Structures are given as C-alpha cells and as structure tokens.
Amino acid sequence: MAAQKSGMSPNVLHSADEKASNSLLYTLAMGSSIYGASTLNYDIPINDRLFITQCDIIKNLAEKGSCVMVGRSADYVLRDNPRHVSVFIYAKLEDRIHRVMERHSLSEGDARALIAKTDKRRANYYNFYTGQKWGKYDNYHMSLDSSLLGIDGTAKLISQLAEDFRELT
After folding, report:
1. How many domains does the chain have?
2. Is the same domain home to 81 and 118?
3. What is the pLDDT of residues 4-30, one digit of tens each?
4. Cβ atoms 156, 146 nearer than 8 A
5. Do 41 and 12 share a structural domain?
6. Boundaries of domain holding 128
7. Which residues, 6 or more positions from 21, have their beta carbon under 8 angstroms from its beta carbon?
C-alpha cells in the first residue's frame, strides 16, 4: 500500500522498512513537523517518507473500520483514535529462539543473533519515530507474553479483547 500511495518502488521501500532515518542533521533541521505531514516532500529521506506514508495509510484504514495492524508504530500513530486497542506481544527468549530456529532453519546461535538484531532494529525505529520507548507497557493498552498461551491462544485472547471493546464503543 505504501508503494502504491507514494509511487516508490516496493523493493526500495522494503529495504527502508522499519529502519530509522540516518539523516540526523536533516531531522534536527526539520524538527518533528514532518511527521504530521500528509503530503510527501521528496527532499525528505526515504525512511521518513515511508513512515509518513505508513502513518497516513494506518489512519485511513482505522477510519474506515476494524483492522489489525502489526508493528509500524500503529499504537503511536493511532494514539488519538478512541476506537483503537493496542497490544504489545512479547515472549520468553528461549521460546523465541526455538520459534525462529524452526521457522528459518537456523542454529541456536544464529537464531539468537537474528532476534537481537531484529529487536534492536525495531526498538531504534519505534524510539526514533515516536519519541517513546519500544515495549514500554504504558504505551499499550495490554502487554501479553505469548509463551503462556502460544500463538493461537494469544491471538484468540486478543480477538476476544477486540470484540469486547467493540461492544463497549
């Protein structure tokens, strides 16, 4: 959707996805005003353009009706939307290592390294674009340890939460 909306190549966007801008000087010069922009300025670094585009898409989808967003700092993007429910899902490291080993056919060491790298990238992205701390409980309505119920049980619990919330609003 971001490629369609922005006119940028999906391959270029994929390489910039969930990566904080490297343009510290540009960001300091522009301040935070670029993050509320609804039109794209092509002098903005691609990572920032992608974030702005994704924000617009997330807000538009949420206005149209029920939807599920995974990542993309959607909790922050929708923070002023009274109809959103945000959940942070985490798991014990050992469970994550085994899941990554199975999913990607990796050794334990490689899985551990991939998890560390991915977590660092996600935290840097979230912290950079939101000014918040990734994974901090008070950024979300609920935090769940998927080690307790497994993936399916966690999904079922979140689905029930969303259904109950929808009935209240």
Report:
1. 2
2. yes
3. 776 766 776 666 665 666 544 444 444
4. no
5. yes
6. 73-169
7. 27, 45, 47, 48, 51, 128
